[in-house]
Amino acid sequence: MMKILAASLLVLLSTTALGCDVLLKLKGEIGTAQCTQDSQCRTVAVGAKSCGGPEFYLPWSIAEGRAEKIALLAKKYTDQRLLEIKQSGELSTCQFVADPAAVCKQKQCVLQSKDAIY
User: Fold this and answer.
1) How far apart are alpha carbons 84 and 113 in whole angstroms?
2) 83-92: long-range contacts (C-beta < 8 A, 24 or more apart)?
3) pLDDT tens across 36-87, in order?
4) How many CB atoms lie within 10 A of CB 9?
5) Domain ranges within the chain, ordered by starting residue
6) What pTM did the predictor assign?
């Protein structure tokens, strides 16, 4: 029984480490999200809650970020979180996290609503 618990813990820790690495890569790809107007700003849904929906949103700029790469990294992180949730039995609030939209403020894309910030 202890071996099974130890193996489960090892798997959980390794997936958590992978998730952190992917999140760092995602934030690196987003960069500083520089912009000159609101139309350059986008959001990306990131992570997963056990009852569905994203954990949070990140703002990014089409002037600086590569949409395909950002979407791929966000999906990879979300998939890792779903695996962690399944393996650990993690529970979360089932509160819906709405897309807050992003706007250009002081030449940087930011979320319109602070409620969705990670």
Assistant:
1) 28
2) 83/15, 84/12, 84/15, 84/16, 84/19, 85/48, 85/49, 85/50, 87/8, 87/11, 87/12, 87/15, 88/12, 90/50, 91/50, 92/49, 92/50, 92/51, 92/55
3) 999 999 999 999 998 989 999 999 999 999 999 999 999 999 999 999 999 9
4) 12
5) 2-116
6) 0.78
